[in-house]
Amino acid sequence: MKLRDIFWTQSQPWKGVRTWTVPRALRLLHSALMLTIRLSTTGMHRTQGVYNRTQAPGTLFILWHDHTFVPLFLFQGRGIGTLMSTSRAGQMQAAFWSLYGWPIVWGSTKKRAGITALREILKKMREGAVFGFTPDGPKGPRHEAHGGAVYLASKAPAILLPISVAASRAWHLPTWDKYLIPKPFSRVHLHVGAPIEIPPDLTREQTQEWQIKIAQALEEAHRVAQWELEQRL
């Protein structure tokens, strides 16, 4: 038996250690670490009034893939949906996020499954739902926005809220996104940037222009988060 078979079996992908014990252990470690962090925020007033809507516009919280560690904890239990891959890693991650009260929409890097997932999110956002979205996920390139967020915000319509995180001390995992994990007792600042509204009926060229604008908005949010963090050190 291979080690991975202890955590995942193809015949019963939702049974066993991988989707019960491991996610709960991760949540315990994650929550314990977050309780040691000195967390400050700016721009949180921009999130007020975005929950429990029954019609458009919905809201899309956008952030880089490596900055999800803190928002996962901070925005828990608010019914914010998120897109997860049906891959082995995605299924375990979904089980972990679900423990924090994040509803899951299943997607895939395969074109047909990805389009189906976006349509499901689009339908929910037209009913006023809130979703978290990583424009550079799930496989990168790092900090390069793809077209998914632009498509959703334009078609729903939905308001985009860029979010970024800065930490005084952190680990960066050896993954494609250099995933950021704040170290215990570090100071962390989360900033919610100004809302972005994307017009409907975009051409391909306009979509690409908005992808660049989204990347710029996230980088600006990070500059603010870093500056605010430095003021508190």
Give the end-to-end Cα distance, rounded to a whole number of Å: 50 Å
Number of domains: 1
Radius of gyration: 18 Å
Contiguous low-pLDDT stretches (5 residues minimum) are: 1-14
Q: Give the helix/strand class.
A: alpha/beta
The biggest sheet amounts to: 8 strands, mixed
- Mean of the pLDDT scores? 89
> Which fold name fills CATH's third level, the topology?
Glycerol-3-phosphate (1)-acyltransferase
Written account of the structure:
It contains 7 helices and 10 strands. The chain is an alpha/beta fold and 233 residues long. Strands 1, 2, 3, 4, 5, 6, 9 and 10 form an 8-stranded mixed beta sheet that branches. A two-stranded antiparallel ribbon has the order 7-8. Helix 4 links the parallel strand 3 and strand 4. It is globular and about 45 Å long. Residues 1-14 have low confidence and may be disordered.
